[in-house]
Specification:
The protein contains 13 helices and twelve strands. By secondary structure, the chain is α/β, with parallel strands linked by helices. It has two domains: about 170 residues, Periplasmic binding protein-like II (D-Maltodextrin-Binding Protein, domain 2); about 100 residues, D-Maltodextrin-Binding Protein, domain 2 (3-Layer(aba) Sandwich). A hairpin with a 2-residue loop joins strand 4 and strand 5. Helix 3 crosses helix 9 and helix 6 crosses helix 12. It is globular, with a radius of gyration of 22 Å. The N and C termini lie far apart (about 60 Å).
Length: about 325
Amino acid sequence: MTVRALAAAVIVAAAFPALGQDACPQRGDLDTIYCDADGDLLADPPKDASKLKNPDTLFFTNSPLDDPAVFNKLMQPFVDHLASCTGRKVRYYDVYSSAAAIEAMRAGRMHLGTMSSGDTAFAVNVAGAHPLGIRGDANGPQGYQLWMIVRKDSPFQKLSDLKGKRVAHTTPSSNSGNLAPRALFAAEGLVPDKDYKPLFSGKHENSISGVAAGDYDAAPIAHDILVRMAERGVVKADDFRVIWKSANFAPGGLSMVHDLAPALEKKIRECTYAFRYPPEMQKGFQGADRWLPIDYRKDWELVRRVAKESGQSFNRTAFDKEKARAEASKK
């Protein structure tokens, strides 16, 4: 090799160092810091044992779909059980948005959390989350439906009646609050962004309360959140009409970080599946009484397909856009 050719080779190698360093055979939609060598769509645990985490305190968060204080109280029996069963302290890590919960998991500031269907997919790809539990009972997983709600005294009877009206979506990553409507409403004669401009409310509670107050004409929401709000007396179920319902989706799941020490990860799974919801949790989660194991590839297939059909993605680029939107809403 001539001196000139050798110099050129050195320059090329310096310009593209990642090509030689990235030994990951595949990662799909996972962010570049993760790898999915086994093809299960989840981030592989670190190969370097020194990078595995074995904390004395587990930080737990709830993606803020409902009122955080109310939801934390509802989840407290499980948190107490997890602490007793694992022998670790468990503390809440409160966040102001779903994006903040995912960033906290990515940064290692929290280890476990419950998230909505769409946020779970973001957490998998952006934060390396491993979904481990889905609400259900002895008959199988619990599901939830997308409902399009309007005020009971409104004139709207079908989706196509909402053209040009004030329709609240929740957040861009929400399955029932944004992605599913974009994928499913067109067949019913209503196309978001064409027939109406979605008004992002921030969360399902805001959409529901906004419809009740007349701020919005309608809103696509997760039906179980409306049920919980009605049970708490925040709204009256009779004040709404449901003009459209979807088939069942998988409810939000319980996830943990991908880099816990194997023994601790195993213990968390055992403790989670052994737990049975007390009466107050069963009431709050519409009869669900346990966490059932999740197969992310299978159980979230519909959520991923709906997102794809709606032109959305659960990758890092899409997450950064949603994070920016959440930050802007605080100002």
